[in-house]
Amino acid sequence: MPIEVESPEEMGYATIQYNLAESSVRDIYFRDLKVNLDDLFMCYGEHRGKLELRNEIVRNEIGLDADNVLVCPSAATALFIISTTLLNNKDHLIVLRPNYATNIETPRAINCEISFIDLAFENGFQFNIEKIKNAVKPNTKLISLTSPHNPTGVVFDSKILEEIIAFAEEKGIYVLVDETYRYLNFQSELIPYYAAKSKNVISVCSLSKAHGVPGIRTGWLINKDGKLMHDFLAAKEQIIICNSVVDEEIAHHILSQKDYLQKTHQHIRQNFSILKNWMENEQKYLEWTEPNAGVVCFPRIKNEYPVDIAKFYKILYEEHKTLVGAGHWFEQDDRYFRLGFGYPSKEELLQGLKNIDASIEASML
Fold first, then answer.
1. What is the β-pairing status of strands 322-323 and 18-19?
2. How far is it, in rounded angstroms, from Cα 117 to Cα 98?
3. H or E segment at 310?
4. DSSP string spanning 126-189?
């Protein structure tokens, strides 16, 4: 997948000085966690995930308990488990696009029939529910979407999502809501997991984006259908049996810290203010849909500017040591790019934005 082949970790962090490609906050050091693992018993863990961790994941969630949670080694693994458990080459999937690549590439790999509902810049990347309804076929098994949305940062209207869920229940279709960015709700209250609303809904989340610990590879899926959760567990056991007990202990420690995200949200709000001011007052080459949550947005170079797009990315990376997520990461035109504002420091963001301007100007035809 281009989003992984061209990722900062694959390109080499040493080659990037201004990293605006990340869709997460800055990674932290183990010492920052102040966790003691000396008494951790290095055994096989609970296959569903450490009970205390599962309880913590759904703490304060109405209608959900630990039995509704399956902890996985990353949200990406959870998404893989969902696709390979629910879908085969006789099934049909509806996917909102752009989307995270795993939500598309895994179903493709198993030859599942896919219908795309393409989100448009002109509509603020909001989806039309009638398009989804009209795309349903007799063999439709799953509707896949993300909210907060990757790569735009848009949060879909809860009432529209509830209407989709009600429609899916009526038709016997599952709804996957990839909620990986839910903890990055720096402008609003935390939205309850959509899985609480119906047995037909599967929620996915992780610690990688908001908590600065992608290295421990901890995510989860949530669903209230006992039979489906049994099947998901069986799939996980075929892949890995259980998670790393070290990862789970760290994850439990993090989620137990009630004020863990306060400093993170403060940093995001500061950087978002810088980005918003740049887009609204200093920017002439780009246009955007302002994000509601998360730490990414998906601006595009205005069509009236004749830019050599390949040259733009080359200059940005090679001359300015700056990286953004090109549109083709999400099967979109490369005039779009994902810009992450949660990972860089204030100073890195300011300079990175200047580098984007300079690279566009240097790429004019």
1. parallel
2. 9
3. helix 309-318
4. PPPHHHHHHH--TTEEEEEEESS-TTT-----HHHHHHHHHHHHHHT-EEEEE-TTGGG-TTSP
β-pairing, 337-340 vs 296-297, is: antiparallel
Give the Cα separation of 358 and 263 in Å (integer): 32
User: 2.60.40.1180, 3.40.190.10, 1.10.10.10, 3.90.1150.10: which CATH number matches 2-23+261-362?
Assistant: 3.90.1150.10
Backbone angles phi, psi at 115, to 5 degrees: -115, 130
Structure token pair of residue 358 = 């300079």
Using one digit for the tens of pLDDT, what is the confidence trace for 111-166? 999 999 999 999 999 988 999 999 999 999 999 999 999 999 999 988 999 999 99
Query: Look-up: residue for tokens 């001359």?
Result: 319
CATH 3.40.50.1970 for the 35-255 domain, yes or no: no
Cα 177 to Cα 196: distance, rounded to the nearest angstrom: 12
Got the DSSP string for 245-291? HHHHHHHHHHHT-TTTTHHHHHHHHHHHHHHHHIIIII-SSEE----
If we measure between CA atoms, which residue out of 263, 272, 58 comes closest to residue 179? 58
Of 222, 204, 210, 293, which Cα lies nearest the Cα of 251?
Answer: 210
Q: What are the structure tokens assigned to 8, written together?
A: 């900062």
How do residues 69-108 score in pLDDT, each as one tens digit? 999 999 999 999 999 999 999 999 999 999 988 899 999 9
